[in-house]
From TrEMBL:
It comes from Mariniblastus fucicola. Coiled coil: none annotated. GO terms for molecular function: inositol 2-dehydrogenase (NAD+) activity; nucleotide binding. InterPro entries: Gfo/Idh/MocA-like_OxRdtase_N (IPR000683), Gfo/Idh/MocA_oxidrdct_glycsds (IPR050463), Gfo/Idh/MocA_OxRdtase_bact_C (IPR043906), NAD(P)-bd_dom_sf (IPR036291), TAT_signal (IPR006311). Residues 47-163 form the Gfo/Idh/MocA-like oxidoreductase N-terminal domain. This is Inositol 2-dehydrogenase. The keyword Signal applies.
Length: 470
């Protein structure tokens, strides 16, 4: 199937459904739940899925009541075919090249759930093609990619939701931010983000590329290299042995700096997001001026480059402290209970995906938050569902109303810059001073060169080819 073609059958079916929906009256008012906006007869939004792994298919299943997957793009034909059966009973059009999805006029929304190194390019090209986008976190591999994403979003006005779903999926995070915003903690002095240690591996052998995988396209903008795949016997904390998968593609991409930032941009993109959200909600600066600390890697580094190419190379243990221009410490560590410990002059709270605790929380029993406190920090947007679907309902509502969603690209990049700077500090083993206004590293030429990475020839961002007036 060529990039420019798509199923006439699917198009006609979609058009017919739209006509039926147009004849079916739907009445909404401000007291109805947000999900009612999308429950009209045949009122599902056609959507294109780019990246059909576990996250992409899981998200589409969660949002299945409100979206209709009409196109799937993945460089692994096995994954694409499986997702097609699970999400659309085999009725979606399947492509290897994501640009075939972006060229379709019947698709106004795309979901990008590719490996991290494949986020920026299709996201920018989707915005230029007139699409609204729900893109998984982290949006970028580098700080300079974030600058370009923010620029294109401002110029196109597209609605982009980042997959930092803790803002919607787990209501205790929003409540924690509301507690801070209502002054219950006083001025915040320190926030600790515990994000867990990363796995390590022994040498992983070079392996034959699976016949269903386009390896060159999977690598995309990243450097050309050989596919590695194997198994390794590991022992858990209870002494139980198991055979663990070790490779440099699909899920395991996140333990290679070539494709990810490791735990710093994986779990870090979740908890540091909560930390920066709480600071901003409390009226405090989120501008970072420096970051320092130590990290342990499973390989040696020289000038920020891993010397061994046959095993995981992201930091597996670490302790960093980022300082804001108001003297707030943001600590990023691999140990202690996963979650965010927010410490203020009046008290402290701890929040993760299972709990929200602390004396200021206990005091809510006798001195509850104002009824609108949580919705205020949620940008005044409708709040109905919890769970995975909640972040999607927020996105679909903002797509419909043409407004900024709860996880916007601008606040996301403010916090993701902290994650990226921690990664540079880890690889160089020295303190970094940061100028938030110019978004440059001060007085360190090598560190400053790591704000960007070259794209492999043939996989550069297409800034003009897909531009549209939509």
């Amino acid at each position: 199937m060529t990039r420019s073609s798509f199923s006439r059958r699917r198009f006609l079916k979609s058009s017919a459904a739209t006509s039926v929906a147009a004849m079916t009256p739907c009445f909404f008012n401000s007291t109805q739940p947000i999900s009612s906006e999308f429950r009209c007869l045949n009122d599902k939004a056609p959507i294109g899925l780019i990246g059909a792994g576990g996250m992409g298919t899981g998200n589409m299943k969660a949002a299945s009541e409100y979206v209709d997957v009409v196109a799937i793009a993945d460089v692994d034909s096995g994954r694409a075919g499986k997702a097609n059966m699970e999400l659309s009973e085999g009725k979606a059009d399947v492509y290897e090249d994501y640009r075939s999805v972006l060229e379709r006029d019947d698709i106004k929304i795309v979901h990008i759930a590719t490996p991290d190194h494949w986020h920026t390019k299709p996201l920018i090209e989707a915005m230029l093609a007139g699409k609204d986008v729900y893109c998984e976190k982290p949006l970028t591999l580098t700080i300079d990619e974030g600058k370009l994403i923010r620029k294109v979003q401002k110029e196109t006005g597209r609605v982009v939701q980042v997959g930092t779903q803790q803002r919607s999926q787990f209501r205790q995070f929003t409540k924690a931010v509301a507690v801070a915003a209502e002054g219950r903690l006083g001025k915040i002095k320190r926030i600790q983000c515990a994000i867990g240690a990363a796995p390590v591996s022994k040498a992983i052998p070079v392996a034959e590329v699976p016949k269903e995988l386009n390896w060159d396209m999977w690598l995309g903008p990243a450097p050309q290299t050989e596919l590695r795949n194997g198994r390794e016997t590991t022992v858990d904390k209870n002494g139980k042995k198991k055979r663990a998968r070790r490779n440099n593609f699909h899920y395991e991409f996140r333990w290679w700096y070539e494709y990810s930032g490791g735990k710093l941009t994986d779990w870090g993109a979740h908890h540091i997001d909560i930390a920066m959200w709480a600071l901003a909600a409390n009226g405090q600066s989120t501008n970072i001026v420096s970051i320092d600390g130590t990290a342990k890697h499973p390989v040696e580094f020289k000038d920020g480059v891993a010397l061994q190419k046959d095993r995981y190379n992201t930091a597996n243990e670490f302790m960093f402290t980022a300082m804001t221009d108001e003297g707030v410490e943001i600590v990023i560590r691999h140990d202690t209970d996963n979650g965010c410990l927010i410490e203020g002059e009046k008290g402290r709270i701890f929040v993760n995906r299972k709990k929200l605790v602390g004396k200021p929380i206990e005091e809510l029993k006798d001195n509850p938050l104002p009824k609108d406190a949580v919705q205020k920090v949620y940008k005044g947007l409708p709040m109905e569902s919890q769970g995975r679907v909640a972040h999607w309902l927020n996105f679909l509502h903002c797509h419909k109303e043409r407004i900024e969603p709860i996880s916007d690209v601008h606040s996301h990049m403010t916090m993701l810059n902290v994650c990226h700077l921690a990664g540079i500090t880890a690889r160089l083993g020295r303190k970094i001073n940061w100028d938030a206004k110019t978004e440059t590293i001060v007085g360190d030429e090598l560190a400053n060169s790591m704000l960007a990475r070259p794209y492999r020839e043939g996989y550069e961002i297409e800034m003009n080819a897909l531009a549209t007036s939509q």
